[in-house]
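Session log. Operator J.P. requested a structure for one protein chain; no other inputs attached. Running the standard single-chain path with token output.
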Amino acid sequence: MGGTTRKDVDAFIDALDHPLLPLIRALRTLLLALDPAISDEIKWNAPSFRTTGHFATMQLRRPDAVRLILHIGARPRSLPAAAIADPDGLLTWLGPDRALLEFRTVAELDSRRAAVTALLRQWMAQLA
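Structure written below.
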């Protein structure tokens, strides 16, 4: 569903039947607040976030966790794990160009807000 607008994403989230809806909303708010250049749309049947390219997509398949898949745009390329400082060990690397953040509650997201924000800013810098 490419080319969706923020209003479309609002409607998509409002229509979701997911037990972690408050967490989905909180994570979206955190992502959009990172930088005014960030936009979101529905891609892969979930909210996806972009600047010059897509860098993060929520995975909403699990009822007990919201996953945020971090990726480097549409073209495959390697990103050395050392390029992202992760002192709290929050990232799970899925491949040379993808990593995962996982949250189970809004309180967990809130308690990790500074670390998650730092990770996301570093990740976004790799898009340039």
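Operator note: The radius of gyration is 14 Å.
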